[in-house]
Amino acid sequence: MEAILSSIADRLAQKSSGRSGPVKQVRLHLVYLNVRTALLVSLLVGVVLAAFTILLGSVGWVVLTRTGSLDQLASVVAGEGTNGINVKSLLSFNRVFELCALLGLANVVVTTIFGAVSAVLYNLVVRLTGGVFVGFTNQ
Question: Cα(27)–Cα(129) distance, rounded to whole angstroms?
Fold first, then answer.
């Protein structure tokens, strides 16, 4: 596998050799992911996704309210003959915001756990396979 990657990197270096100046080629070998760093990065990604979920839910509720879609939904549900279901109170801003916040919190927890488990699994697989080779050229 390393020979294939080396030959690809050599071909790329030859293509760029027509340019002026020296070309420096660097091959990196990724053999370890720090679990704590992966945990913190995945936590940050989860917090950003949670904020996006809350923002999207709030904007969606405002748009549906301003366009009158919630009123139409309430009249359709009331026309169906259902007793005791008040759609406006069921889909109030507070309930929608709480649901989005709960989904965002669950997303933070799942994303953080997934990031940490992925780092641990990568570190275990690296012990078997030897890691990932990445080649860079300075042009």
Answer: 17
Total residues belonging to the chain: 139
Specify the higher pLDDT residue, 21 or 120. 120
Residue 103 CA, chain-centre distance (Å), reads 15
Backbone angles phi, psi at 137, to 5 degrees: -125, 145
Among candidate residues 37, 55, 52, 56, the one with its CA nearest the CA of residue 112: 37
Bigger pLDDT: 46 or 25?
Answer: 46
pTM, two decimals, is: 0.70
What is the average pLDDT across 62-77? 87
Question: What's residue 1's pLDDT?
Answer: 52
Neighbouring C-beta atoms of residue 119, cutoff 10 Å? 20
Structure tokens at 96: 């929608």
Joined together, the tokens standing for residue 57 give 């839910």
- Please tell me the number of Cα atoms within 13 Å of 83 on its side-chain side: 0
Residue 104, number of CB atoms within 10 A of its CB: 21
